[in-house]
Amino acid sequence: MKVKFCTIMILFMMAASATVAYSQDKKSSIDVKGGTANSSDPGKWGFNSAVGLNLGLDPHFAFALEPGLYWIKWDKGLGITKTSGTITSELKASINAYMYPIMAVAKILIPEAGEGILPYLAPGIGYSIMKYSYDVPAYDVGTTHHNSVSINETYKGFTWQFMVGAVIKPWSDGVVGFVVEAGYRSAKLKQSSFEINMSGFVINAGINAAIF
Fold first, then answer.
1. Taking every pair of C-alpha atoms in the chain, what is the biggest distance, in angstroms?
2. Is residue 66 a contact partner of residue 32, using CB atoms and an 8 Å limit?
3. Which residues are registered as beta bridge partners of 133?
4. Per CATH, is 2-13+27-72+100-133+152-210 categorized as 2.40.160.20?
């Protein structure tokens, strides 16, 4: 794990150097995108977003730094019910998972596709930190009172992804366009010997704008 983490940090430092080197060539852009993603262990879809700094190296290749947020919220029934007249309700735990992936992405560009559209392939590697919370409100069963329960944990781990997308620019002389992409992200995050699999499919759409 330490070797993987050091490798990722080296890639990030290389990308930071590239930002300085290429900012004067006006080849950089920024993506602001949002969408949805699912994950294996919770088996849920949630909100996904990312901001990407794209550093154009040549017409067929770009490097991107891409921090993001993946948020899933769901409820889990605990099998404790209460009947009021004809209505039966169930006590539920509220669960939130906030995953923060930081990705280094190599974008393979296909400018030959035609004017106004730039398809790309985007493999990437990185590191994710996930904050997990599990909350049960206080409740009573008969004359017995149960206090609320709150559990907060942090999971971390190596992350990789492969995306396919395109930048669409309706205006040939404009600096703003649209970006759409879909793909798969692998994130098996750990806390000590415990693992949660947050891997799943990702769908994003947003805005691409030239910044340098």
1. 73
2. no
3. 96, 152
4. yes
CA separation for the pair 46, 157 (Å, rounded): 19
User: How many CB atoms lie under 10 A from the CB of residue 183?
Assistant: 18
Which distant-in-sequence residues (6+ apart) come within 8 Å of 179 by Cβ?
31, 33, 165, 166, 167, 168, 204, 205, 206, 207, 208
Candidate from 24-28, 55-59, 74-78, 154-158 with smallest mean pLDDT: 24-28
Domain boundaries, the chain: 2-13+27-72+100-133+152-210
pLDDT of residue 18: 42
For residue 24, the tally of other CB atoms under 10 A from its CB is 9
What's the full length of the chain, in residues? Answer: 212
What are the start-end ranges of the E strands in the chain? 28-38, 45-58, 61-84, 87-109, 117-136, 139-141, 144-146, 149-168, 176-191, 194-197, 200-210
Spatial CB neighbours of 50, under 8 Å, sequence gap ≥ 6: 31, 33, 34, 66, 67, 68, 69, 101, 103, 204
Residue 108 has what pLDDT? 94
pLDDT tens column, 163-209: 999 999 888 777 889 999 999 999 999 998 899 999 999 999 999 99
Could you tell me if 188 and 163 are in contact, meaning their C-beta atoms sit under 8 angstroms apart? no
